[in-house]
Design brief:
The structure is a single chain. The protein has 16 helices and 15 strands. The protein is an alpha/beta fold. It has two domains: about 250 residues, Aldolase class I (TIM Barrel); about 70 residues, Arc Repressor Mutant, subunit A (Orthogonal Bundle), CATH 1.10.10.
């Protein structure tokens, strides 16, 4: 399986919780689209005639692309690469960008999965997050998409948000579930020092949620979604009836993917590549035909660590046998002491071939991953 990730660095406004924002007023979208199309052509041999099974427009706000701009990119993908007729084609979008005309166009271009960034249905917190949409727009966006035949929809939520509480989170979950979407992604709010929220914490204008608050919100989220038929197949992702994100699942299982656009990463099983993050420099280099990415050949240790990092967060756990094939390292032997300690602490379960996080372990996943790396 192979997939294409197309990073679109356009945002309508700077968000308090994100340090990666580019106003469309300050960025030449035409040149960026030209560069993305040019890079698609330049990387045409990356998959060596493999069929592309997933296409993902993400990062920033791809729904800010005009119909013509999105067509230029998608048409290039289909012209250059062999795309499966049943490919999963996803676009990340904001509720305020979705109306009947926009959605009908997306559907006409073969886009069959929407990832809608709602974050919360609480209007007060939405304003505080500097989001343009309100709760009514969020609900209507989902309903309009469903009325036009979009079935594969994921709603993105955040928990442990500043000034939120368990009551607000409960209402968010009730609203999301009532929309009957097959997939919900839920991410813990985190602070970065350079963002507006990070600076506000330093100035004591905003109190950071303590770990206990994050744990309480996470437990409510997990239990409520489970009761309502959503399976937690990855720490931050919940799906009904096995309707997993095929694109994200490919990342977690080490499938090959090609990243297009500034800051995008690629992986072919042997090398990892990452594009220049600086937008003007990316555009300049690509349009000149210069190399706009760096490459790193993965060592056995890199492959081992990557397997731990990506697989342990999933319901399928780490497959020690496959990890040994790719990295020539026996997880159960070289990490015997660490595994024993984690099992004794009730953080992981072990079978003859796999390691899994327990419910308790999911709360400490990052630390557990670090312990198991070489």
């Amino acid at each position: 399986m192979s997939g294409i990730y197309i990073h679109i660095p356009f945002c309508r406004q700077a968000c308090h919780y994100c340090d990666f924002h580019f106003s469309t007023n300050l960025l030449n979208k035409t040149e960026m689209v030209q560069a993305i199309v040019r890079e698609l052509h330049e990387r045409k041999d990356y998959f060596q005639n493999k069929t592309v099974e997933t296409i993902y427009f993400g990062g920033g706000t791809p729904s800010l692309l005009s119909d013509n701009e999105l067509s230029l990119i998608l048409d290039a993908v289909f012209q250059i690469y062999k795309v499966d007729t049943q490919a999963e084609i996803t676009i990340e979008c904001n509720p305020e960008d979705l109306n009947s005309l926009k959605l009908e166009f997306l559907k006409s271009k073969g886009i069959n999965r929407l990832s809608i960034g709602i974050q919360t249905f609480d209007n007060t917190i939405l304003k505080y997050l500097n989001r343009v949409h309100d709760s009514e727009q969020a609900v209507n966006a989902v309903k309009i998409a469903q009325s036009l035949g979009f079935v594969n929809i994921t709603v993105d939520l955040m928990y442990a948000l500043p000034y939120s509480n368990l009551g607000i989170l409960q209402k968010d979950l009730e609203t999301a579930v009532s929309l009957n979407v097959p997939h919900i992604s839920a991410y813990c709010f985190t602070l970065e020092e350079k963002t507006a929220f990070g600076k506000m914490v330093k100035q004591i204008k905003l109190l950071k949620n303590e770990d206990i608050v994050e744990q309480e919100h996470y437990e409510l989220l997990r239990k409520y979604l489970e009761i309502n038929g959503y399976e937690q197949y990855e720490i931050s992702n919940y799906a009904r009836e096995g309707q997993y994100s095929r694109h994200n699942s490919a990342y977690w299982f080490g499938k090959h993917y090609l990243g297009i656009g500034p800051g995008a990463h690629s992986f072919n099983g042997i090398e990892r590549q990452w594009n220049i993050s600086n937008n003007p420099l990316y555009i300049q280099k690509v349009l000149k035909g210069d190399k706009a990415f760096e490459t790193e050949t993965l060592s056995p240790a890199d492959k081992f660590n990557e397997g731990i990092l990506t697989q342990l967060r999933t319901k399928w756990g780490v497959n020690a046998e496959l990890l040994k094939v790719s990295s020539n390292a026996d997880l159960f032997k070289i990490k015997h002491n660490e595994i024993l300690k984690l099992k004794t602490s009730g953080l992981i379960n072990q079978t003859e071939t796999h390691l899994y996080l327990t419910e308790k372990g999911k709360l400490l996943a990052d630390g557990i991953v670090t312990e198991l790396m070489v």
